[in-house]
Structure formats: structure tokens, C-alpha cells
Amino acid sequence: MLAGLLTKCSPYSKLRLWQCGTKTTTNGNEHYNLIPFGPYFWAKGLRCVFAFMPFRFAHVCDLLDRLDQVYSRYPPYLPKDATQKSRDAVLYWFKKHGQKIRHDANGLALLSSLFPERTERVQGLDTKSLEKIVSRALSLPSSRVTELTRWREPGAGGCDLGSCVERVVNQAEIAVQPRASGVTIEEIEQVLAATASQTLLSSPHARQLTLDGTSSAPAESLGRLYQRLPARESKWFTRLILKSYSPVIVPDQLVYMLYHPFLPDLLEVEPDFSAALFLLHGMNIPAVVH
């Protein structure tokens, strides 16, 4: 049941905010499970609730694929041409999805999926441990496991774990939807936040956050997502977990400006996404539609 408004002070901000959560009782002890990063309210003048509509991870993968075409091209573009083409890709993507992004999607989940290297969360997973999670989740036979581990071989070149995951999912014909899946950035944010909350190397803020309904082991939660993701999304999800889309460069300042013209300046004051979005929601100033 809804526990009401629970006081929460962001470690990255001097502002005291209120956060929603659920309350459960076990053996007479009350446990509060905070819902990370939304909905939040200002401590004074509680006027609105921030409700988010699902935004499919496939849409994020569309942008990452387009940027990958720019930065993986051979022969490579001149730097100025690569920069312009990446800007064009982001502008087109926001033109297509901007209305939903600005008004419906979870801002933190979106920014965290586009810029995983900027989050304070530590998943406690290296490439080899994630490889084992994928192998177990997809029940890969030994021949497919060999394909999955090809990134380890000397001279693998541009082959990383993400591209190996994409290959084995395609080859093994795992029983997922042939088209884009229904996995959302909100689901991914929920699982990754829960995983980080169990890792001592995460920031104190990340470790304090627990999620109602995500009490299973991190490997199991991640595995269930892999079972639902088709090959392309599995590749980018793997890279998201490992916090590197290299060689892809997402033009951060352009994304921030298109999300909201005040966001770049707020991130100068509050570098943490969650703290900056707290401030942005509190200002209650609509974004300019581009």
C-alpha cells in the first residue's frame, strides 16, 4: 500500500524533497521501499504528481544504431562531418519522439540509458560475470557459449561482449519477438537501480534505494530482461550495463537542450541527473518544442 510521503534528502542537493514509496510489514517490523527518482514532490505546495508513461528501449536503440553507423564507418568521417551527422540523428530522433519524451517518459530513465557513464550507480558486474549471466539466462549450449566468449580472443578487434550477445541471440533463435520488444527504459532503470542498491561501491544514495517487487537476485532480474530482448536490444543493453557505448558518442549538450532548455544550466549546478531533474520539475516551466 502507498506509504504516503516520505522525507528524502538528495545527497547531491541541499533541497529537502518528498518521495513516494510502499510500506510492508514483516513480523511486526515496517519496511519502506522507496520508488527511486519519481514521483517526487516539493516539500511546500504539494500540487502535482509526476506520472510517467512507458518509453520503449527499442526507441533508444534506434538512436544508438544511427550513431553507431556514423562512428563505426570505414573510412571514417572527418571529425566535423561525424559531429554534424550525429547532431542530425539526435534532432531527427527528438522530432519523432520529443512529445512523448518531454511529457510522458521518465526523464531519469531516459538520460541514464543515453549516458550510462554519468550515473553514480555501480552494478558490481565486470564483463566476465555479465557473460555468465547471459549464458545462463539464455540456456546457451556449449557451441553458443564459445561464440559468446569470442570477445576475449586476442585480435578480436571491434568485437565486444555486446556484439557477441547480439550474434548468439540471432544464431540461437531465442524465443523472443522478432520485432522490437516491449521492454521499457523504466523497467531497465528499475532493475539496474535495484542491482546497484546491493553493491557497496555504489554511491550512498544508490544503496539506499530499494524497489518493491524486485527482491530477486540481480542476476535473475537481469536474466529475465535478456530473455525478453531481441538481438539488437540485447547488444545495447549489455553495453548500457557495462557503461560504455564506445565508439558511439551521444552529443550530450544537444540532448539536454532538446529535453529542456534549462537542463544544461541545471546540470552545471547539480551534475547528478536525479538532482537536476528535481530542480527542473519544481520550476514547472514547459520545454520549448523544437
Helix content: 40-55%
What coarse outline follows from CA principal-axis ratios? globular
Q: What is the rounded distance between the termini? A: 40 Å
Helix segment count?
A: 13
Residue stretches low in confidence (pLDDT < 50, at least 5 long) are 1-24, 30-50
What does this entry look like structurally?
The chain has 290 residues and is of the alpha+beta class. It contains 13 helices and four strands. It folds into three domains: 1-51, no CATH class; 56-119 and 245-290, no CATH class; 121-242, no CATH class. α3 packs across α7 (185-197), α6 runs antiparallel to α10 and α7 runs antiparallel to α9 (218-228). A hairpin with a 6-residue loop joins β1 (2-9) and β2. The longest helix is centred in the N-terminal third of the chain and has 25 residues, at 79-103.
SSE arrangement:
Layout: E1 2-9, E2 16-26, E3 29-34, E4 40-42, H1 57-71, H2 79-103, H3 107-114, H4 127-137, H5 142-148, H6 161-172, H7 185-197, H8 204-208, H9 218-228, H10 231-241, H11 252-259, H12 263-269, H13 273-283
Antiparallel strand pairs: 1-2, 2-3, 2-4
Helix pairs in contact: 1-2, 2-11, 3-7, 4-9, 5-6, 6-10, 7-9, 12-13
